[in-house]
Amino acid sequence: MSITNPTLFPTAIHMADVIGGVAALGANADIIPLIRRGLPVSTVAFILDSGKLTLAELDRIVLPRKTLMHRRKLGSLTPEQSDRLVRVARLIAAAEETFGSADKAHIWLRRPTTALAGEKPLELLDTDEGARRVETLLGRIGHGIAA
């Protein structure tokens, strides 16, 4: 699977853009081997610099600041950290596609919602099950089903 085919995987393309696109991941890259090897630390810098996540959010959801400092010296994330970062990027991309705007997605991800038992969607992304619930809710919203 290539992440560069927007007709087959639009969210995958957008997800790659959230973490740095071709500059960080390479052209025509399959994301799975990249995750297994460990993404470059530049992907973290990109998502922070773009404002998609704050350092505090990254600290809670993807990897602690102290660990990030250590990973910067090594140049890459671990496969587990890479997987968490991609999960968060995929859901940010899905929210942006669902709401049609990065600003609207940014607000929605950080606002508590009754459909998620009063939790903020972004705060659920620290677990796979939480991410699935957010993804399901975004799917319902995208299809016009009452959340």
TrEMBL record:
Instruction: Please state every residue range assigned to the domain named Antitoxin Xre-like helix-turn-helix.
Output: 30-90
Write down the species: Acidisoma cellulosilyticum
Q: Which GO terms describe its molecular function?
A: DNA binding
Which superkingdom, per the lineage? Bacteria
User: What InterPro entries does the entry give?
Assistant: Antitox_Xre (IPR011979), Xre-like_HTH (IPR046847), Xre/MbcA/ParS-like_toxin-bd (IPR024467)
Instruction: List, for all copies, the residue spans of the domain called Antitoxin Xre/MbcA/ParS-like toxin-binding.
Output: 94-144
Protein's UniProt name = DUF2384 domain-containing protein
